[in-house]
Amino acid sequence: DAGVIQSPRHEVTEMGQEVTLRCKPISGHDYLFWYRQTMMRGLELLIYFNNNVPIDDSGMPEDRFSAKMPNASFSTLKIQPSEPRDSAVYFCASSLTGVTGPPTGELFFGEGSRLTVL
Amino acid sequence: KNQVEQSPQSLIILEGKNCTLQCNYTVSPFSNLRWYKQDTGRGPVSLTIMTFSENTKSNGRYTATLDADTKQSSLHITASQLSDSASYICVVSGAGRRALTFGSGTRLQVQP
After folding, report:
1. Is-contact B25 B7, C-beta < 8 A?
2. Using the beta-carbon criterion (under 8 Å), do A107 and B96 form an inter-chain contact?
């Protein structure tokens, strides 16, 4: 399997522009997670889906952020309008089962999308 | 508040030497603890996952220990290699909680 695939790997945009990040989870995985990583705050969970349904979006910072999972093989994270403080690396991860267990599911991360908002 | 604290924040060692990274957590009730390795510019990769009943787990030169009574874990790296240079992140899951709690990581640099 190719693993979790994210695109784009790098995105530079200007404040106010719309940004769309994309993720293809590992085939057969029922859970999909979006994380954000910054130097100051480390890795933070934004939202996660189970069987394409959003389960917990309490980590989404504000209404400018939205995420969708139209089918089992694709998810998007959208920021509109983008702001400089959104600059971070955004990771998508997938898991066969839930990560809190039992059973204890292994979490597989993509390579991330590095977003810079000028 | 559920927290995961890692120490040291950064570490420099010579190639071939051993090192131990620490993780203390307050997440309760506890479900499992994971160690991840994150190379610069890459996504985290799982090294070990330990549940309450496991107190040691190895993955090649990496050995993780868990003391659920004192809420402490360590990651021991034996005979370090240059490729071990990375950030190591401790992640704890609480039973009944939906999210993982991440530590801020230890940045390890192995020098020749």
Report:
1. no
2. no
Helix ranges restricted to H, A2-100: none
Mark yes or no for CB contact A101/B46 under 8 Å: no
Q: What is the mean pLDDT of residues A76-81?
A: 97
Tell me the two tokens of residue A67: 């995420």
Strand partners, B67: B72
Q: Which residues of A touch B31 (CB under 8 A)?
A: 100-102, 104
How close does chain A come to B102, measured CA to CA in Å? 6
Provide the shortest C-alpha distance from residue A20 to chain B (in Å). Answer: 19
Using CA atoms, how far apart are residues A56 and B30, in angstroms rounded to an integer? Answer: 20
Look at the alpha carbons of A66, A51, B91, A116 in this order and tell me if their dihedral is positive or negative. Answer: negative
The mean per-residue pLDDT over the stretch B32-59 comes to 93
What's the confidence (pLDDT) of residue A103? 60
Instruction: Give the mutation candidate from B4, B50, B89, B102 for the A interface (greatest A CB count, under 10 A).
Output: B102
pLDDT at A2: 82
